[in-house]
Specification:
This protein is mainly beta. It has 1 helix and 10 strands. It has a 10-stranded antiparallel β-barrel.
Length: about 180
């Protein structure tokens, strides 16, 4: 019996997130609007007893075309670090980055990846970061940035709302009756 209890304890210790980590807050369905005019529906799923998050998203681009994204976030209890390995998509290149547990308002992943150039081709691998910032109980802002000329430059940003929260009406838009 003692061996069984010890084995259960080791499994839990290996997969549990850091105390206070907010990563599971993302679990659920979201709708997102980008500054460039894209709209997406996104699902974050918590798996492996909270040690991983899977993200799947369908993005409708301003052109009317669709892109499909997926990301996987894995927590390593030994290093107290989250890792994202994102495959290349129609919108940006592959990305590998790490972050400390999400304990405050912002969660920042830093690593390397490729971003699209001004003419739409994938650029070279460069330092990148992705920043989640909570806005309220049911919304967050997400930025993708590349390091160039000694500064961080945002190339993609969006605001996401839980499906249970209404998408805010853009300012200056007449109210539908």
């Amino acid at each position: 019996m003692k061996v069984f209890v010890l084995a259960v304890f080791l499994i839990v210790a290996e997969t549990a997130q850091a105390p206070g980590d907010r990563a599971d807050w993302l679990a659920g369905n979201w709708h997102c609007d980008s500054r460039a005019g894209s709209r997406s529906n996104r699902t974050y799923s918590s798996v492996n007893n909270g040690a991983s998050l899977n993200m799947r998203s369908t993005v409708r681009l301003p052109s009317g075309l669709f892109a499909f994204l997926r990301e996987r976030y894995d927590y390593d209890a030994a290093t107290i670090t989250w890792t994202i390995d994102s495959p290349q998509s129609a919108l940006w290149g592959p990305m590998h980055a790490t972050a400390a547990p999400w304990l405050g308002r912002e969660w920042t992943f830093t690593g390397t990846g490729s971003a699209p150039s001004a003419i739409g081709e994938m650029g070279p691998e460069r330092p990148m970061r992705m920043i989640y910032t909570t806005i309220g109980d049911d919304s967050f802002h997400r930025q993708h940035q590349v390091r160039g000329d000694g500064t961080w430059q945002t190339y993609s940003e969006e605001t996401c709302y839980r499906d249970s929260a209404p998408r805010p009406r853009p300012t200056g838009t007449p109210k539908d009756d």
